[in-house]
Structure prediction request, 377 residues.
Amino acid sequence: MPTLTTSQRIANMLFSSVYPLYLAKVEKKGRTRAELDQVIEWLTGFSDKKIKKILFSLTLVFIFSHSQAQKLINFSGQIKNSKTEESIYLDLGGTLIRLKLLEDGSFSTNASIQQIPSSFCFATISTKGTVYQQTPLIWFEKDSIEVNIDWFDKSLQFKNRMPYQSLSEEIETLKGNKQNEFILSKPANVPILYFVNKNKEKISISDLEAFSQKVDEIYQKSIYFKRLTSYISAKKREPVKIGSIVEDFTLPNKDGNQVSVVNKGTKNKLITIFSSSCSWSIASISLLEKLAKINNGKIEIITIWADDTRDSWLNSDIDQKNKITWTNIWDEYRFASTYLKNTGWPTFYVINEDGRLIDIFYGYKQKTANKLKDLIK
Prediction:
């Protein structure tokens, strides 16, 4: 590998990495940050506000480009004045982790996150299974975060507040159409994308398209933007129903290769949408295993996992998932779930060799087992 010259190394340095070095040097000589910014403004025309914007933008580029499919985050802190009998959960965008509180209310738990920056909140669950958000979303970008809460008034204390924490809290105070009008009118950033993606089913496709076209390239690498554009793409297709043709699409396998789901003119297909968080989905693997053993190539079996993270898809319930010998792919950005109008798990779609949807059935029950057997008669 060729060695870079000094000039080449300097040319490859980012402003965001050079600036702190200059600042440390001038402060060592008794000068101030304001004086450094003044010199930079003279040389480049960048104002103090512009410098801060550049630093923040370049930081985001670095974060998005270096975020792996999985990142293990440690959540810790202390919850004071909670009731002994009350269960408190960490809510990671729909994934709930029950906190084990010590006598003094302290806690520590690890969780896999698909992307940073990301957010979480604290929640409770009613006896009927309804999840209630108890705190505002808390945004973070590091691999650990410590939060202290007074559960009586839900007041929070935490370090390293993200620049858009206040914006996120402002958005949460708005409800319904007022919230949608607000987020669609603002320049896109991480929390704006989060809320647009969260509310997308209540926003017209034309408004979502107009919004997505204005998203800066910096934020197009975020999972929120990718899920939003995937949703728009799926919704622009003809709706799927019994008797209609299912257009082909691709999803990634464990090696990251895109796999075609609907290949017309080959053989009948059984497409299943499962979730690792659904015990009936995990149990249904055994049904498909039995079907695969007596199938003799009559139908092609494809399992699509609607999991939030790659880690959950590949590594949870591994003893059961090791039984999978058929096509096993991930609905990473929810395209399949949206296009096939999936509303629960497990769901089974039967598509004939012409690509026409001929049956849909649901659940882990004897009726499902009977329908699977009928497929190979």
